[in-house]
Write a structure and sequence with these properties.
The chain has one domain (3-220): Vaccinia Virus protein VP39 (Rossmann fold). Helices cover 41% and strands 22% of the residues. The protein starts with a helix and ends with a strand. With 223 residues, it is an alpha/beta fold. A hairpin with an 8-residue loop joins β3 (100-102) and β4. It is built from 8 helices and 9 strands. It binds S-adenosylmethionine. Residues 35, 37, 65-69, 71-72, 92-95, 100, 115, 140-141, 161-163, 168 line the site of S-adenosylmethionine (SAM).
Length: 223
């Protein structure tokens, strides 16, 4: 994708944010395209959804479960910042000694995802390069989210993108719901994975549906 094609369908405001994200990614990872969130089509979807996040305190406090290389966090936080609505950012990821195993349904085989201490350091460098202050909990989500609940922390947006297999997405969603303020947004990633799909279906049935695209679905709690 050429430079012109990359930003062609975006408004000036959108392309200015995406350009700054791409510049930060290039500085740390030597690539402007990290994953779907740094692609213009998915970026536009996120931009439109994030414009609707209610924030009773004026700013959007954001929790991301599964930060990996930091790409989605930087995209989401940069969009909120461009709206003048970025509050606190908290991320959760254990960053394993030797990565972790997962079996993406579209691959049909088990792979080792390189989510390690080195990945964490690169993610932190990306946040710094993007000018973002992030509080990171280096722990599994079930433990870190219970700590946040006990500490009475609440968020306006929770993005669940951790372990997508077994009961993990169910536990993350249940704990995420406890961490949301009334009227806040819950966003799930990889809703087509077998163990995420039923969670997304239940959310669609019992929460207000905001929008979906690029494997993500966004829901709103009752105010
Ligand atoms: C798909 S990646 C996240 C990608 C990232 N959100 C992005 O789009 O740039 C999943 C991440 O979840 C983390 N993870 C795996 N098991 C976890 C657990 N039990 N609790 C929290 N995070 C976990 C992995 O270390 C990995 O970094």
């Amino acid at each position: 994708m050429s430079e012109v094609e990359t930003y062609a369908d975006l408004t000036e405001a959108e392309s200015s944010v995406l350009r700054s994200v791409h510049d930060a990614c290039a500085a740390v990872y030597r690539t402007r395209q990290m994953n779907e969130t740094t692609r213009p089509d998915c970026f536009r979807f996120l931009y439109s959804v994030l414009g609707k996040v209610p924030a009773p305190n004026g700013k959007v406090d954001y929790l991301e479960v599964g930060s990996f290389k930091g790409a989605s966090l930087v995209v989401i936080a940069s969009i909120l910042r461009s709206f003048g609505r970025l509050g606190e950012i908290v991320s959760i990821d254990p960053y394993f000694a030797e990565g972790y195993e997962e079996t993406p349904p579209f691959m049909g085989k088990t792979i080792v995802k390189p989510s390690t201490e080195g990945t964490m350091r690169s993610a932190f460098r990306l946040y710094e390069t993007a000018g973002l202050t992030v509080t990171h909990a280096r722990d599994i989500s079930s433990k870190a989210m219970i700590d946040l609940i006990r500490a009475d922390r609440r968020f306006d947006l929770v993005y669940i993108d951790g372990n997508h297999e077994k009961l993990n997405p169910m536990v993350d969603t249940a704990l995420g719901l406890q961490l949301l303020r009334p009227g806040a947004f819950l966003m799930l990633d990889d809703i087509n994975w077998p163990d995420v799909k039923p969670i997304a279906r239940l959310c669609r049935e019992h929460l207000r549906f905001v929008g979906n695209g690029f494997g993500k679905a966004c829901f709103q709690l009752e105010a």
